[in-house]
Design goal:
It is built from 3 helices and 7 strands. A hairpin with a 7-residue loop joins strand 2 and strand 3. Strands 4-1-6-5 form a 4-stranded mixed β-sheet, with helices on both faces. A 3-stranded antiparallel β-sheet has the order 3-2-7. With about 150 residues, the chain is α+β, with helices and mostly antiparallel strands.
């Protein structure tokens, strides 16, 4: 089995809300920050900018690194082990578009302290790291799910 690397991006608007998508494809019915798999030869920033443009149409500035999430709950549930590079950037303005309607049915601005449920593990972990100022949580796989 291989471990897959991904990048997740917290996009923060002027009101302190973050952009979340309701997944309808592989990760349905979970809510999640935008992001995706790292392609060979890509920097984390390039991956983040590519994925955000592909999913939402937003053109973001290179995001800053928050930390790393080892997504063990997903591995236990799905048999797919991912490690997520968690990043953050400011909202560049404009509306998020449904560029990949087969993967995401809606985009919504939400308060990070009031996440919609069910919430995707990698996204929950990234938001937790960002809110607490941590870069890694050894027990991230033990964070509560609702």
């Amino acid at each position: 089995m291989t471990v897959v690397a991904g990048v997740g991006v917290i996009i923060v608007n002027e009101q302190g809300e973050i952009l979340l998508g309701k997944r309808c494809g592989q990760h349905a019915p979970f809510w999640s920050i935008p992001g995706g798999h790292l392609d060979a030869g890509e920097t984390f920033e390039q991956c983040a900018q590519r994925e955000i443009a592909e999913e939402t149409g937003l053109i973001i500035a290179p995001p800053s690194l928050i930390g790393i999430s080892n997504n063990l709950q997903t591995w236990r549930a799905e048999g797919k082990h991912t490690v997520s590079v968690c990043m953050v950037t400011q909202h560049p303005g404009g509306e998020a578009q449904l560029k990949e309607p087969d993967k995401c049915s809606e985009w919504r601005w939400c308060l990070p302290e009031a996440l919609p449920e069910p919430h995707f593990e990698a996204s929950r972990n990234a938001i937790h790291l960002w809110l607490t100022g941590q870069c890694y949580l050894p027990t991230a796989s033990l964070l509560p799910t609702k």
